[in-house]
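Input sequence (125 aa), recorded before submission:
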Amino acid sequence: MRSVENSGYDRLASIDLETQLDAYLENLPKRCREIFFMSRKQMLSNDEIAAKLGISKRSVENQITFALKHLRVSIKDISIALILLSCYKLKKNLAKYLSNDFGSWKEVLLELIPRCLLLFYQTSI
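Predicted structure, token format:
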């Protein structure tokens, strides 16, 4: 069960990440940004976007691809900070598990290492 503290922290981290992504997207050309928001925020299909804007589906796909490439490059700037944050959270969780007599080291590692690897993978995409 998740504690209120963790869910609150997760919510703030999510809001912060979304704010940061929005800031990165502001650097895109207006039309590209508009298409990306229609796709990801309004959840419109490529066909729906193309019909609304009067452009080809292929143009929509190209603009979304361009926006995703831009985000990948931009996010690499913050990936090291996210990895450090992940390590901090791992250390904090390790201390919590050990203080609660969680069990053997094997149990602790089996619980925490997959989480850390997932966080690392998410930040390196």
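Checked by second reader. The longest helix spans residues 57-99.
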